Amino acid sequence: MSKLAINGGSKAVTIAAEEQWTPPCDEIRNVIDEKINAGKLSGDWEDTYFKFEDEFAAYTGAKNCLAFNEGTFSLWAAYLGIGLKPGDEVIVPSYTWIASISPALYIGARPVFCEVEKGKLVADPADIRKRITPKTKAIVVVHIHGNVANMDEIMEIARENNLYVVEDCSHCHGAEWNGKKAGTIGHIGCFSMQGDFITGKALPAGEGGMIITNDDDLYNKIVFYTQINRPLKAGEQLDEKYKRFYPANLGVKFRAHPFALCIARVMLKYLDYRNDQKRSYRQKMNEALSGIPGIITISEYEKARAGGFYGGMQMLYDATAYDNLPKERFLEAIKAEGVDMSYRDYDALHMTPLFQEGYDIYGNGQGAICGDYIGYKNGDLPVTESTWANLMGMPVFTNEPAGYAEQVIEAFRKVSENYKELL
Amino acid sequence: MSKLAINGGSKAVTIAAEEQWTPPCDEIRNVIDEKINAGKLSGDWEDTYFKFEDEFAAYTGAKNCLAFNEGTFSLWAAYLGIGLKPGDEVIVPSYTWIASISPALYIGARPVFCEVEKGKLVADPADIRKRITPKTKAIVVVHIHGNVANMDEIMEIARENNLYVVEDCSHCHGAEWNGKKAGTIGHIGCFSMQGDFITGKALPAGEGGMIITNDDDLYNKIVFYTQINRPLKAGEQLDEKYKRFYPANLGVKFRAHPFALCIARVMLKYLDYRNDQKRSYRQKMNEALSGIPGIITISEYEKARAGGFYGGMQMLYDATAYDNLPKERFLEAIKAEGVDMSYRDYDALHMTPLFQEGYDIYGNGQGAICGDYIGYKNGDLPVTESTWANLMGMPVFTNEPAGYAEQVIEAFRKVSENYKELL
């Protein structure tokens, strides 16, 4: 008689995978309702923009924070700030969300994909080194799903080669490296605030983003390149270089919606609590899952303290533990047991049509990924490819339903012990 | 004894220039509160994004509408859509908000400024003709402060020279040319929704924008260039060219905040009423002011029906009617009478440091306004310069305070009759 649910047995998980934490809707509503009543929309500098920026700067310990309309534009702004220009190269892990690098394409700079570290999901410093050329301008580090990359090694590489380090922190609000908040170790940290209160970024705002940087010159340049008609904060001085172009600057506006920042200001109060809870949940699950054959949990550097956890928690599948049972089959069986194995699944970018075939964005044969661009092909990044092929993920919870975690672990144990039913 | 308030006389205007129309805050609050309670932020495609787009398309009679995070990005999207590339030229009136053209700078395309029509504030077709070169790709028409440009002539020029016409409709939501809504006559119409309920754009959303176009190819290309992970609307087909890149497309997101569109959907219901009221107010004021010596009201084409009225209503000052009394002095006297003469004052772009000196945006000597760029100088656009020098403006009202308009007219009459006190 079959034991596995996929074969007609009873399910190991009978509890729905529903977040039990209640978002602070009342608080958010009150703040926004007040703004609506007062007709305070764009232009609410002191009470919305500057307050959010000051609070997030204080939270991260960064000197400067600047809010944007999207995470995408926080990266775009960073690329403009570091002086990325057509023909430059940017090293970026292939396993990331495309927006880590897509703004560079519009500037005309070329992505150079690097490997992730085996079992860690973050950029591999040794592989980054191999990909540096005279055209390299920057390394983009992505603390993917909240896992913090080896910032010591990466900063060392950057120093040696005179490169900028852009930290894409869209997944890791509140994460740390060696006691410092992610985003403050590289030259600039970029964040997304996309998404809703539960499944969105750790600091969600609907749509939104921000950069943090300790480099005043970089900050001033980014203001000049992206912020038309932005008033000066108390004590802020205009840089001589940009003074006579003020306030129109370069005429564009990468600006957050004020209500996005209203949401974010409330949500920031709950960030540490949610991170702590999710970290505990992840640790508990990792400890249990690491005892299951064929499940490789994601390992962290000692100096790293994961945070944000966008996209849930990941693990790798090792088919050799199960007579080469394909991951897809294993996963189906786990899901059939009632485990929520949904997660934010990214393509390995070098395996996508865009970066394999290239595209002539401006139609002049001279763009980032056309002309002399040699597209990637499958096999080019073997570690990333095997990681990607074996990746599985599941949600993490601020407050999980009572008993859910134990049932999930039981489901893994059950499928593991009865895998022969799947062969 | 002095009669003018500036010289110690009593003020002609004793009523505060306060809009009496009450914005629909309750309605807006209800919609947004519901979204907050349901945790519907980004991703609320059917109920927010598509509904707004369908409603605005229906309002304008356009085939396609696509919402953006800013008016700036609606223009950026338009430029990407028409295939603007580095080295191209774009003809644009010098008297406009810089964002009409600034996104083109980031693409590497060069603005070529044209004159406005005397007494009309909109692009002069005869002058546009003179500025066409083999590099010209597009004409940007700005229906500034709600005044509609001569679309018949401009479309004819575009046809003859195989150029795109981009209508910057940021000031003129609801305006018409020959019975068609502004934005539907050129190849693409771009709108801003920046600002608050009273002083913002005619369709305000805090921050936001949209494009409309009847050209499906243009629409599909813009979706591909600016909309990552946008689901298809019912009945929408993916273009063959872009199919295999879907849904990541080119990896960037120029996306409106969902709450911006919640606001805009409510405000759209009031657009026609507000436009009708403001149109009547403007007409009443224009009729009275045109009887004042030295005041030249802005004239409209017979086919034009102004709308939106962002930045209020303008007029030109003719110093010769007052023994060459400088405009500034006349204006001071009018203000001293209690008239609100605040208005959205734009620089003539060719007179700004940015377009006179140029700027090397990407630091490679090859940008839009560097390298072989010959900057503009004062005197280059004499009609625009004299228009700009003589421009004055004042608010228009949906519901003006009772008696305010009459007092304003009286103030003009009083200063006009007693101008010798100012000499």
Q: In terms of topology, how is this protein built?
A:
Two copies of one chain form a homodimer.
Chain A: H1 25-38, H2 45-60, E1 64-68, H3 71-81, E2 89-93, H4 102-107, E3 110-114, H5 125-130, E4 136-142, H6 151-161, E5 164-168, E6 176-177, E7 180-181, E8 188-192, E9 209-213, H7 216-226, H8 240-243, H9 258-289, E10 295-297, E11 304-305, E12 313-317, H10 327-336, H11 353-357, H12 382-389, E13 391-394, H13 404-417
Parallel strand pairs in A: 2-3, 2-4, 4-5, 5-8
Antiparallel strand pairs in A: 1-9, 6-7, 6-11, 8-9, 10-12, 12-13
Descriptive account of the structure:
2 copies of one chain form a homodimer. The first copy, chain A, has 2 domains: 5-22 and 272-346 and 382-422, Aspartate Aminotransferase, domain 1 (Alpha-Beta Complex), CATH 3.90.1150; 25-269, Aspartate Aminotransferase, domain 2. In chain A, strand 4 (136-142), helix 6 (151-161) and strand 5 form a beta-alpha-beta unit. Chain A has a 7-stranded mixed beta sheet, with helices on both faces. A 3-stranded antiparallel beta sheet of chain A has the order 7-6-11, with no helix packed on it. Chain A starts with 24 loop residues before the first helix and ends in a 6-residue tail after the last helix. Chain A is globular. In chain A, helix 1 runs antiparallel to helix 9. With 423 residues, chain A is α/β, with parallel strands linked by helices. Chain A is built from 13 helices and 13 strands. Chains A and B meet through helix 1, helix 4 and helix 9 of A and helix 1, helix 4 and helix 9 of B.
